[in-house]
């Protein structure tokens, strides 16, 4: 393996100024260190030209299709084999990768790496394989009339850039297609894996080959390769220039894929959307009388008492109504933005395919009644039994621990309140925030433990399809997250009806969580990357035999965006559910997002391996979760407005009875829910131009299908 992994020959020109003498040029030429795969020469203009060889092109497996023959092959995916893999096993796997599909292969290109007996295989894809997979996935590409159209292999010559795969498909799409083709490798008949012991080395007919090799310990990992030049360009345009308000979304989608691009697009849209509520929060806090909710002390018969009524009546009403309308408009306009992006990226009409068993699925080998293929089978009743008798009780146990922490929080709150009333000092006043902070730390620790338990439970439930696995895992985590983060707030608000305590709890949650997240997500990884790993990096830089490929293999795998979406969802809940109590919520969230965007970008670019990214048309289940919180915010804000001491005083002064207040609140709640539903109905999920383009694509696809049948 050589110093670079990009296709072709990499030239590094070291220009020497004209004032240097020929002797100095010669000394520079002779003293520059050379890699074993580098060649150096001086040209007639006095520049030192270092030519770095990459993967030898003649070592790639050959293709039989004339249109797929290329002088330069792009390295896309790396298969990491075990350290003790036998050469015969490696050659057998390479032969499977290069074989045509009618012979049970993946129709890909393979390279053995720097050594035939080494522990890596580099994989690429020929043009025809990429084009056929593009049609199977249902991707849309630019037609000859410059409009997006569903790609058809039979009509491929009428699409633009169809002869240049690096222009026709993004890097993320090409790498995902390679991974998809590798995952679809299946044994045509029962056979032994060469070089693997008898017990784990038997492949049954129609068994998934890659999953079998992972279980047998032959394959350690499969991951996409970075293109260092393109990565540096994305980084320079992304977080190096601090482009928080306008990120290079097309470059992110092209390099990292749609999953990553939709997350950062949503984060950018969310950050822009926070500006109006943040401005309103500042106005209500600092310009309206009593808007800040600042605790005031007054002497009553020699005893210091607190008053903390928060915003005025008008401030409460404005903030509550604004939060309800804002959450609705935010979600509806994001849907429109999401549909526009999916059309632009050609993922609006993705094809639903019959799902293969996920890698971790286990069971007794048998014939699938749908496909007729041999694969692991697991009875559905056993899975339901595991869910009902084990998973649900354990989830209930953790929810009980949440209640236990809530009880401890109230007990601690009563203790410090009593201590503060006895002493009345500044120290005791500061201690008032200690129970909230301790409860925040407790919930964070409990959250981390539960996330690990939820993952193990979902794996143990043994779901066949990846989508089912993700849905069950996300449901577990969302249920606990909602209960863990919002149960204590709802209890304070609607059971204890203590809005000053709710305000303090919400403030401590926002401030402490923001500090913890910034430390764990940005500061700690930055310190590890810059200082603790400095010696390892220096060793790589000084040793020219160390390949960039090995540096990528040493990076940890990307953990995914699950935790990032959970964090955004929780903070969106704080804003939409409780911001009328603490108007500065949006201000703190805006500050958090401003640091979140470059922090997440830095982590993805520098601290982890490049992840695979399947083409997606939206955020998936996360968008539904945000919609549910937006709906709950209507009820939450209505009843918080009713419980406000200032509103209650205002109603009592007007002679309104408690029963009439409740009836009026219920009426207002239903009216606002109706307004929310009307707004959601009146705002289309996609702009008119996207709808027209979508209908044109569907019409043209039906016509093309009819012509193919004829």
TrEMBL record:
Cellular component terms per the entry's GO annotation: plasma membrane
Tagged with keyword Nucleotide-binding: no
GO function terms (MF aspect): chloride channel activity
One Pfam assignment: Anoctamin
Keywords of this entry: Membrane, Transmembrane, Transmembrane helix
Assigned protein family: Belongs to the anoctamin family.
Protein name (Swiss-Prot/TrEMBL): Anoctamin
Organism (species): Salmo trutta
